[in-house]
Amino acid sequence: MTDHNTKFVLTEKGLQKEHFDFYNKYGFIHFKHFFNQQQIHDALEAIESIQQEWISSGLTKVNGIPLKYGKDENGRTIVQRFAFASLHHEYLHQMLQDERIQWLKGFIGEDARVAENEKDGLVVNHYVNTGESNFTKLGWHTDGLRDLFTNLKLNPMLNIGIYLDDSPIEKGGLRLLPGTHRQGIYSMLFKKRYFVDNNPDEEEIALEAESGDLTVHSGRIWHRVALSPLQGVASKRRVMYFPIIKGKYKPKTEESRTPIYHRFHRLVK
Ligand SMILES: O=C(O)CCC(=O)C(=O)O
Ligand SMILES: [Fe+2]
Prior knowledge:
By secondary structure, the protein is an alpha+beta fold. The protein contains 7 helices and 14 strands.
């Protein structure tokens, strides 16, 4: 028997029936220790080096996607939301070429693709509670809705999370409404007030993870990031996300316009 707390390990056998069954039932799946600690360490170094470049050049957007800046627990300026990170560092790009990442396409079909230069590419979220942080939580949303506005069509989509820090419940973290990936369009539009509502839901479940874990969630599932009750380094939570998508190829460039949903993103701290 599996319940929503079941965690899996992806072995060389690839995706198994139990993985598909779990994902299809709940709309997400959690793989333990997907990347080892050396890989996570090297990814964090790569992110640090991109951050230094962006801070010193005063970069505000990548391919039309606004970067979020703030200060960490030491009062140091940091980037709190990166976009297209794998286009800016070879190590992160290589990480996404892992054969096992390609296997994940199986959840929506082999004709899907890892999108490094579409949507927001590889995003790095850095949450921390400090007086000068600009990113501590994120209200209820689905990741796929934006697609409806840009393409007038909902294509299947996965959002893949790679945990860079341990994320126990004390850090706040991801809350999901299991099964909502099977909802109709009305519920996807109106079940919650997009990004402004960050209230707990009776049906929500918390996803607790360790650094190196990998998660997959459907572009249709409702989720939010809860505020950590702790302050400073005890609240620090870094996680990377990239999409696996289908549909028309729509690469972004420096000329790309800022999508409307980023205005909502900026409303919330
Ligand atoms: O930080 C997380 O775990 C989730 C972030 C998220 O939902 C998003 O960036 O769309
Ligand atoms: Fe999301």
